[in-house]
């Protein structure tokens, strides 16, 4: 482990995505809620995999995708999450380290296998997630190294962690350490069902702990129990800190108190798979923020990364985001 | 195992592809010959994987890609190849069976793991293959079920099999059985280095055993030791049977004695990765041929499938080839 400064440390589920195309009837037949994330056990994962079409496997995990994107932009990130000492665990670790991500949580030598997420991509490019967390579910406060959190300008946490008691403790520890060192906490609401499960706690976190809040339109409306995005934006502005609110093809709105920026989406030739669009938006945004860029540039970098992710199967970038940023930012870079 | 008729049975290496982007300097540093296929052992595979960037894993194998494409067109194919009872073996089998491919060679319970191919995709979309055949190398004549060969209109074999003595015997057995039942043999030259290793035997096969010969421009020129594609076409016309000769962005030339058809390539928005372009061309061509289409339509179907394959990472189709064919063939379907 190096001891230089880090831009961002991500804490989240270590997962390899297993993606296939499916039609809407498949979702109905399997009882899946389109666009959602469902936690499944190993037996259900096996049965669902059997019924899926041919698959593509790519490393995933919400915060891990953000961290991979940030490394691809040229940032210096670290990641905290748990894998098993199995083949998927080796793939997950390889794909982070190949990007220069600091990742050294020792793989578990017993217990459940490395987590995977079975993803159905429908013809509308929407993705429906079925996550079997496996070894990832054992993430706990002991995995959070205080020195690493202290070295990172920003610690980024995914809302999904809140579903697991030990991970929630890891979350609390990371938040306390970061703030004790004058560092920032960024947080993604992850999923509307996740918001439904933890609304009161998430509202409390948003008001008191979170410096940079990521949410899509549905999640932020759910958080504040409103049908109006405009209402939700107003609520988000009342809290201390930044909120970056993504709206798919309508781009994003970035707010911080009196500042409100409406950010256009990147033009995309063909929308193939929206898996990871939010994660990659966060990657671009946090890369900009950690390098001291102003909010409109952070939003642009988010749009650029999200635009790349939706052009192919899987969340992880397949082209150089650093290069896309150089071209896309032009004069403002 | 069903006992209905099959369009095509493929025999080849059972392989899962592990793809990453790389620049030309990476190939030089690793001593790799761009565009070629190198057989590597497990230790070399491990070392090369460590030095590769983040990867995408997709089922592969030359003949297996062709068979997957044919199933995607709506054909009824079977596949013969060997996997181990490990995770990659399960992935390979899943991805064929999910398409309705008849595939029932029992996985090996001991010996080397399922084969994989480490693929570097350079910015020019060229792919450089490093195959660790693993369990696939144990393919032998006992794996070739006579009844299945007899049920298939066409048996398709990849040239790569010729590198392995037992697979070569499987090849000879399949050829003899197919011809004894009045069936056709299709064959791909696979790779210029493969042609270099086995030129005399391949020329003999092309003259006496092969009903449908697939080759790209470099392979057919190497086979006939000529620098002129026009010369190579003339030689291909002198043999009995069909030859489908692919030329990347120049499309393909399909010949059968006096018949010569020049087939245009499909327009492609963005060429991402040429892995499997030849395999998928063969898929479309053989689908047409097995359904009694004339040679220009077979060539068009080949172009359509190849055009789909080069638009994304990995060889296996990510969209419905049956649908692309319906749209692309229009009036002539």
Can you walk me through this structure?
Two copies of one chain form a homodimer. By secondary structure, chain A is an alpha/beta fold. Chain A has one domain (6-13, 60-112, 134-332): Ribokinase (UDP-N-acetylmuramoyl-L-alanine:D-glutamate ligase, 3-Layer(aba) Sandwich), CATH 3.40.1190.20. Helix content of chain A is 40%, strand content 22%. The first copy, chain A, has helices at 24-29, 42-51, 62-72, 87-97, 146-151, 165-180, 192-208, 217-223, 229-238, 277-290, 295-309, 321-329, and strands spanning 6-11, 15-21, 37-39, 56-60, 77-80, 114-121, 127-134, 152-158, 184-188, 212-216, 242-246, 252-256, 259-263. In chain A, helix 6 links the parallel strand 8 and strand 9. The mean pLDDT of chain A is 95. The interface between A and B is medium-sized, with 31 and 31 residues. Strand 4 of chain A pairs antiparallel with strand 4 (56-60) of chain B.
Main features:
homodimer, 333 residues, eight-stranded mixed sheet, five-stranded mixed sheet, globular
- Determine and state the CATH class of chain A: Alpha Beta
Number of separate structural domains of chain A: 1
CATH H-tier superfamily of chain A: Ribokinase
> Helix and strand succession of chain A?
EEHEHEHEHEEHEHEHEHHEEEHHH
Shape of chain A: globular
**Largest interface, Cβ cutoff 8 Å:** A-B, 31 and 31 residues
- Biggest pleated-sheet summary of chain A: 8 strands, mixed
In terms of per-residue confidence, which ranges of chain A show pLDDT below 50 for 5 or more consecutive residues? none
Task: Quickly count the helices of chain A.
Answer: 12
Beta-strand content estimate of chain A: 15-25%
Helix % of chain A is 25-40%
Q: What CATH architecture of chain A would you give?
A: 3-Layer(aba) Sandwich
Strand order of the largest sheet of chain A: 5-1-8-9-10-11-12-13
Distance between the termini of chain A: 31 Å
CATH topology of chain A: UDP-N-acetylmuramoyl-L-alanine:D-glutamate ligase
Structural class by secondary-structure content of chain A: alpha/beta
Task: Compute the number of strand runs of chain A.
Answer: 13
């Amino acid at each position: 482990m190096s001891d230089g400064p880090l831009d961002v440390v991500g804490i989240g589920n270590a997962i390899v995505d297993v993606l296939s195309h499916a039609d809407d009837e498949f979702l109905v037949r399997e009882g899946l809620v389109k666009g959602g994330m469902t936690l499944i056990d190993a037996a259900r994962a096996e049965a669902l995999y059997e019924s899926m079409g041919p698959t593509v496997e790519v490393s995933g995990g919400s915060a891990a995708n953000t961290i991979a994107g940030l490394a691809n932009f040229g940032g210096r990130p670290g990641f905290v999450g748990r894998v098993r000492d199995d083949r998927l665990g080796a793939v997950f670790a390889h794909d982070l380290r190949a990007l220069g991500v600091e990742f050294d949580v020792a793989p578990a030598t017993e217990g459940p296998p490395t987590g995977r997420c079975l993803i159905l991509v429908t013809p509308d490019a929407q993705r429906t997630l079925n996550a079997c967390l496996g070894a990832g579910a054992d993430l706990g406060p002991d995995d959070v190294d205080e020195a690493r959190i202290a070295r990172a300008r920003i610690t980024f946490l995914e809302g999904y962690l809140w579903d697991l008691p030990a991970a929630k403790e890891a979350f609390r520890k990371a938040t306390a350490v970061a703030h004790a060192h004058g560092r920032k906490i960024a947080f993604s609401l992850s999923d509307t069902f996740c918001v439904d499960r933890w609304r009161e706690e998430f509202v409390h976190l948003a008001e008191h702990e979170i410096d940079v809040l990521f949410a899509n339109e549905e999640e932020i409306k759910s958080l504040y129990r409103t049908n109006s995005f405009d209402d939700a934006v107003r609520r988000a502005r009342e809290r201390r800190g930044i909120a970056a609110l993504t709206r798919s093809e309508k781009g994003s709105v970035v707010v911080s108190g009196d500042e409100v920026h409406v950010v256009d989406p990147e033009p995309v030739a063909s929308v193939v798979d929206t898996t990871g669009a939010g994660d990659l938006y966060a990657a671009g945004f946090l890369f900009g923020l950690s390098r001291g860029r102003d909010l409109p540039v952070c939003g642009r970098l988010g749009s650029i990364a999200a635009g790349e992710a939706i052009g192919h199967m899987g969340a992880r970038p397949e082209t150089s985001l650093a290069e896309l940023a150089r071209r896309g930012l032009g004069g403002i870079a």
